[in-house]
Amino acid sequence: MARAWTLTSRPVGLPAADNFALVEMSSAPLADGEVRVRNAWLSVDPYMRGRMNDVKSYVPPFALGEPLTGGAVGIVEESRAEGFAPGDRVLHMLGWRDEAVGSAKEFTKLPATGAPDQMFLGILGMPGVTAYFGLLAVAEAKAGDTVFVSAAAGAVGSAVVQIAKLKGMTVIGSAGGAEKCALVRDLGADAVIDYKAEGPLMKKLKAAAPDGIHVYFDNVGGEHLDAALAMARDNARFAICGMIDSYNSLEPLQLRYAMRMIAARVTLKGFIVTDHFDRLGEFHAEMGAWAAAGKLKAPETVHDGLEATPDAFRALFTGGNTGKMLVRL
Ligand code: NDP
């Protein structure tokens, strides 16, 4: 029997195990134009937390009692759709379950690049696209810039560090703990900040970038955004990608250095990865070439088994992942 995770209640604060339930789903015969896929890798992502709240946003909230959705990679088991055959490896959004059934348009065949399949959920997939266009299009970062990136050991952050270095920028990455900081260094960062170590973040950033920063790639919000404002050079550009520090919090965001936006003429621009899907060709060309040349590292943290999915998701908010958080089925 196929199984899927559903949301039983809306989390308040950090999601709890009992906000989720694993249910059995009947496997109906395929209709014309449909494909049945055995999922091999599931992605859990911080944005899913926002979809667990019953609020209007850029994507509708998850419905209670319905299978959750999310990025996944799997292998076609059965097809009644032209262009798909058993054995094809596909990317799709019917995650949080072991078997995905949908119309052919919901599935994209993975290119035969030799890259491991799960990389298409990480640096060669949505998080990579977020990093690439957030840095280069939203923040308009260019060679010679000093770039500060938070959650630098995570999926998006680790891609930002590498893209920025490949493009000739100076990179300061912030992450929680010595081990993650060592990874960020290993990815090429010029300086690292352990934000969990003793001392104010602003002082640590000042020590790493005494002349200030041209670009901030924000994955965290909160104190990180405040420190970046404090150290913004004139005309600095901030790509506001995520604010994970606030996702489980009911406290208002407080910025001590907000007025630096005025004096330093800072541009803050929020964005959603899908804004840039019309330019995916550029992403695949450049990132594909770097990957083929062995220039990209794809750190990952893997949890095994469908049962582990909510725990893997919840661990995103306590720093339980280095690189892309994945569930292997
Ligand atoms: P990550 O792989 O970076 O995982 C989350 C990481 O965030 C954790 O490992 C942890 O690392 C860090 N973190 C969690 N809580 C806090 C906190 N309170 N303060 C500081 N760091 C914290 O996730 P992703 O790479 O998938 O996503 C990164 C960000 O990008 C998220 O905010 C996400 O919502 C956003 N995003 C936005 C998109 C868009 O379209 N705008 C698309 C994709 C992602 P550590 O141990 O270092 O604390």
Explain what you see.
This protein has 329 residues and is an alpha/beta fold. The chain has two domains: 2-122 and 299-328, Medium-chain alcohol dehydrogenases, catalytic domain (Quinone Oxidoreductase, Chain A, domain 1); 126-274, 3-Layer(aba) Sandwich (Rossmann fold), CATH 3.40.50.720. The chain has helices at residues 47-51, 126-138, 155-166, 178-186, 201-208, 222-230, 260-263, 280-292, 309-315, and strands at 2-7, 20-25, 34-43, 72-79, 89-92, 99-103, 108-109, 146-149, 170-175, 191-194, 213-218, 232-240, 267-270, 300-304, 324-328. The strands form three sheets. Strands 3, 4, 5, 6, 7, 14 and 15 form a seven-stranded mixed sheet that branches. Strand 11 (213-218), helix 6 (222-230) and strand 12 form a beta-alpha-beta unit. Helix 2 crosses helix 3 (155-166) and helix 5 packs across helix 6 (222-230). It is globular. The chain starts with a strand and ends with a strand. It binds NADPH dihydro-nicotinamide-adenine-dinucleotide phosphate. The site of NADPH dihydro-nicotinamide-adenine-dinucleotide phosphate (NDP) has 28 residues, from helix 2 and helix 3. NADPH dihydro-nicotinamide-adenine-dinucleotide phosphate is lined by residues 45-47, 127, 130, 151, 153-157, 175-176, 180, 219-220, 241-242, 244-245, 271-273, 316-317, 319, 321, 325.
